Amino acid sequence: MDSTADPKGKRPLYQEDGLAYARAAAAAASATAADEAEAKPKPKPSSSSEEAKPEPEAEEMPPLVLVAEDGVEVRISRPAARMSHMLRLLMEDSCADGPIPAPNVHSDILDLVVQYCEKHGPYYDPEASERARNPFPPFPVELTPTVSSIKPVTYVDPDPHGLKDWDKDFISLDNSTLFEVILVKRILNLLDLSSTPQDLLDLGTTMVADMMRGKKPEEIREIFEIENDYTPEQEAELRKENAWAFED
Amino acid sequence: MAEAAGGAPQLPDDLIIWEILMRLPVKPVLRCRAVCRSWRRCLTSDAKFLRAHHSRQPSLPLVTTQEGQEKRIDAMDHRAGERRPVARTTATATATATAEDLDVLASCDGLLVLIAYGGLYICNPATRQLAPLPLPSHVSCIAGLYPHRPSGSYRLLCCVKTDGRAVYHVHALGSGELRCVGEPPEPWASGDVVTMMPMMEFLKPHVLAGGRLYWHPLKLPVKGGGKVNNMLVFDTVAESFRHVISPVDGACIELFETNDGTLGLYDYNGDTADLWVLQDYERWVWSLKHRIKLQMMPFFLLPDTNGDMIVLSEKGENTGLRWQYLQNISGTDGSSPTRYEWNVFLNLKKLRFKQSLVRHPFFSMEGSNNDGAVDEKPLFEGLSTVTVDLDDDYEPHTEESMVPKSAAGASHP
């Protein structure tokens, strides 16, 4: 536990290779916690093929334990943990039984993220969000001309569990917390910059983007704490270039 | 990245730019260029960012209208209930407007071909680049605007009526040349079709999908007698024509580009709308995706790239002014949560517009006006957003389940 500085104030660059780091750390943690009898040993080649479907066993297994940088443990149930790409991989590799360190994340923020995952977890279906994003999936290669695919059209309540309203309340956070949440969710997902799954990162960044729409450059600098490295003449030149964008 | 004294973390620049700024429409992105140098570098000249930003923009249908002396082209955003301004001319401009103003003939990758001030122009409303299109007067209609993938240039396909026959030419923007690419197959090269082409382009314009231009099917005669629903296709890379038989025989067909880049077709027959998608171009195999039961009788259907549809329906004539309804019908479940009041003087075009901040070199080559000399023909002055009124009396219906009929995918060699 690092007690030399206020954990919230310390924010080094996030770790790119979070997955490898977490795996190694989790392996080390479970190796030292030798008295955890129920921990699965390192994956056996013979049983890996049977572990294709973690879902049926998920409900019976104990929650994962995430350890924030301030040492506080935050528990997340397995169905909720499936929402994180990284945690899902850890669970499939059976590295998820010991405490999983979540470096650079304060427990308050981790709590918020876990709250979100617990709320959305039971309804999370990775294939459904894929279908929503891509209503015209790639066609199979072998195709007989008589294949038909009529889908009966029924009225489906687009939001049966009231998740949208819950999300709106949830994401009304102050800037500083909002940014922390965005950063954490990104680490947990090991996001590839060209694709963005509909999830907490989306929610958070959309919120920030909406907030930015009507703002002037000086207000934007304040939000992100960016230094203005233009001279007044350069800035005036820029504004003239696209004058219409700076009106109203 | 320095740590802020306030305790809020600093988001790394790449996250801000690629996850947050990417979601903003054009105006705020332009403002963000004035925030700091590293942002400006990326937002102005990073081609990857500009292309990705363009692909995230919503594809909105274009609307032309005239209100008093003002002629406008707007983009209709049904989610926000607004008509966003794209271009505008007024009578106070020193150049004279003509009766054909203001109209859009083609739209592709954020570029528009417009008729304004009696002439043809190519423009990008987001970057405000504008250039006249010096096409000769014997060009009878613009049949398509498309990117030519192998060379990276943007090209116009034009139809020139020569001795009653349709002869097509290609103009690469900025090249100053009009190059002949030949005639289409016989049913499309002569006769009434040739005279009708400009009107057809106006009502049901070309669709660009998967590198090919498709035109709306027409009932044309075939050898051996009779007529079939015939579709003309132009391959933009091979620069050749082909004609094929439409998978459905109906009279009300809407073609569109799906967000996968393939061709989609909505077949509307009174109370249902069937969505077909082209699966294999070479073998001409189509697949029926779904059937939506409609709760109203639309007289106008405009498909979206994701399979949704915008429809216009009549409101009824007991109001003094003729009004209509506009609503969006979801392609996945047939639902339509909101409905708007739509004025009959608003012309919904079957062309869609997606803003792009990518700058193109051909604007200066066509002989443009970027140094301000074109102020005599302003297109982007005084633009303002207009709210579209919601229909407060609308109650969305609950759709009943459709029993699937057995229907095979059509295959026409």
Describe this protein's structure.
The complex is a heterodimer of chains A (248) and B (413). With 248 residues, chain A is mainly α. Chain A has helices at residues 18-32, 45-48, 55-58, 78-81, 85-92, 107-120, 126-133, 163-170, 175-189, 200-212, 217-224, 232-241, and strands at 64-67, 73-76, 100-101. Mean pLDDT of chain A is 65; it is low at 1-20, 32-58, 137-156 and 190-198. Chain B contains 7 helices and 26 strands. Chain B has helices at residues 13-20, 26-32, 37-45, 47-56, 186-189, 192-203, 362-365; strands spanning 60-67, 70-77, 82-89, 103-108, 111-116, 119-124, 129-132, 139-148, 153-162, 165-172, 179-182, 207-209, 212-214, 218-221, 227-235, 240-245, 253-257, 263-268, 272-280, 285-293, 298-303, 309-316, 323-329, 339-343, 347-353, 386-387. Chains A and B meet through helix 9, helix 10, helix 11 and helix 12 of A and helix 1, helix 2, helix 3, strand 19 and strand 20 of B.
